Amino acid sequence: MRRTPTIRALAGPRPAERLREFLTAGAVLLSCLALLPAPALAQETGAPQAAPASTSVTVSYRGAELQIEEADGTSHRVGLRDGSVQIDGRNVGSYQKGSALESSWRDLLQRGMDLRPAAFAERLRSWNPPADGADASTLDALKEALSRFAGGSPVAKEAPAASPGAAAGTTGTASQPSAAAGTVTVKGPQGGTVSIAPGRLSVDALASRLDKLRTALGRLGSQVQGEAGDLALVVHDDYAIPHGQVIDGNLALLDGDLRLGGEVKGDVLVLNGTLSVEPTALVHGNVVQVGGTVARHGGTVDGEFLSVKSLSGQAAAASAGTAHEAPEAPVVPHVRHRSSRGFFGSIFHNVFEAVGGVLAVLVALLLLGVVGALTVYFLKDQLEIVADTARANFGRSFGVGLAGEFLFFPVLLILVAGVITWLVIPFYLLAFGLAMLAGYLAVAHATGEVLAHQRYRYEWIERLRRSNSYYYILSGLAVLLLPFALAAALHLFGGWLSFLRGLTIFVAVVGTWVAITSGLGAVILARGGRVTEHARRASPAASETTEGAS
Amino acid sequence: MRRGPEIARPLSALVLLAGLVTAGTLPRAASAQDWLELSTARQADGLKSVTMRVEYGAGILTVRAARTGDLYDAHMRYDAARFSPVRTFERGEGSATVHLGLRSLSGKDGIHLDWKDLNDENVGPDSRNSGSLEIGVSRDVPTDLRVAVGAARSRLDLGGLPLTNFTLETGASETKISFDQPNPGRMRELRIKAGAASLKADDLGNAHFDRLRVEGGVGDVTLNFGGDWTQDATASIHMGLGSLSLRFPTDLGVRIDKSTVLASFNAAGFIKTDSGYETRNWGSAAHHLELEINAAFGSIDVEVGP
Question: Which ipTM score applies to this complex?
Answer without folding.
Answer: 0.78
